[in-house]
Prior knowledge:
Elements: E1 2-5, E2 12-15, E3 31-41, E4 47-52, E5 58-62, E6 67-71, E7 77-82, E8 94-98, E9 106-112, E10 117-125, E11 132-143, E12 154-156, E13 162-166, E14 184-188, E15 205-208, E16 212-218, E17 224-229, E18 234-240, E19 265-268, E20 274-280, E21 283-288, E22 293-297, E23 306-309, E24 317-322, E25 328-332, E26 348-355
Antiparallel strand pairs: 1-2, 3-26, 4-5, 5-6, 6-7, 8-9, 9-10, 10-11, 12-13, 13-14, 14-15, 16-17, 17-18, 18-19, 20-21, 21-22, 22-23, 24-25, 25-26
Amino acid sequence: MRVALAVLAVLALAGCSADPSGLPTSEASGVQPEGDPEVLATGLEAPWSVIRLESGSALISERDTGFIKEYTADGDVREVGTVDGVVAQGEGGLLGLAVSEAEDGWLYAYFTAASDNRVVRLALEGDAGSYSLGAASPIFTGLPKAGNHNGGRIAFGPDDRLYITAGDAGNREGAQDVDYLGGKLLRINADGTVPSDNPFDGSPVYSLGHRNPQGIAWDDEGQLYAAEFGQDTWDELNRIDAGANYGWPVVEGESDNADYVDPVAQWSTDKASPSGLAFINDTFFMAALRGERVWVIYPDSEDMHGVSWFEGEHGRIRDVTEGPDGSLWLVTNNTDGRGAPREGDDQLIQYRLGELVEG
C-alpha cells in the first residue's frame, strides 16, 4: 500500500495506489515509481551505501561487517573485500562509498575507526565480477566520532570535489564552531587537501549548523541539497550554499531567525529520519528510516511538495540511487538492530519510474 502525503500538510490519504489528491496540483516535472518491486539482492547485513559503477556492477557497504560487496550486472552478489580499521559501534562503522569519473580506479570510503571518523582511498582492482581492493590510504582523518550522529555520506560533486556529511557526534554547540569538523558539510580535493575556493580560508568546512546530515545530491543545475536528521521536531531537506549556516542547535526546522537558512522542506521525525538522497529526472528521492518510506520531492512544485511512497512495505530505507535506464534502486536497513528483519532482509530493490501523474 502506498500513501500520498504533502510534505507540509497534515492530510494523509491511504490506498492501494497513490491518491491523485496527494500528488502535486501545480505544474511540475518529474517521475514517480510504477509497477511492482524487483528484488535484486537479498541477505545483506546492515547495508549503508550503494554506488553504481560504469562497468555495470554496483558496490554496497555493510556497516557492521566492514565488507564491501559487489552486485554484478548478471545479478550475482560477491564479497569484494574488507576495509581494514573499521570499528563498528552504535551508528558507526563502514558507511559511505564514492567513486569519481575524474579519479579512475579509486574507491573512497568513509568509516568509523578506533579514534575518529575518516575517509580513505583504495585502489579498485580487477574487472566487473572479480573486483578486489588495494590497501587503504587515509586522505582525511580526525572527524569526531560517537555512538550516533556520525554522518557518513560522501559523494563527488559536479566540480570533482569530494563532499562529506559530518554529524555533530553529540557536540551540539560544536555544530556552530567552524573549527570543529562535526555538524558540517565538508568539501575537499580528491587527495584530501582543502580547495582554495572553499568559503572559510584553509578550512574544509563548506556549510555549518547541521545535526546529522546523511544524504547529499545535486540537481541538474549543479545545486547541492542535503537531507538531515532532526532531533524531536523536524527532519529537513536543505538547499546548501557555500558558507551558509543551517541553525543547529539554535533552531530546528523553519524559524524566523534571519541568521540561519531555513530548510526547503521539513517532516515530523516519525515520518522521515532521512538518510540517502538521489536526484533522478527532475525529482528528488529521499530514503526514510523511522518513516519506513521513500519521499519523492518535486523541486519546481509549490512548497517543494513531497509524496510518500512504499510506507511500511519494505521497512527502513537507508539509501537510494539511480538504477539502470533511469530506474530507482533502494536499500533496506532492517538488520541494523533498530528494524524488524523480514524474510530476505536486507535487500536491494528496483522500481521502474514513469511520468509524473499530477493531482
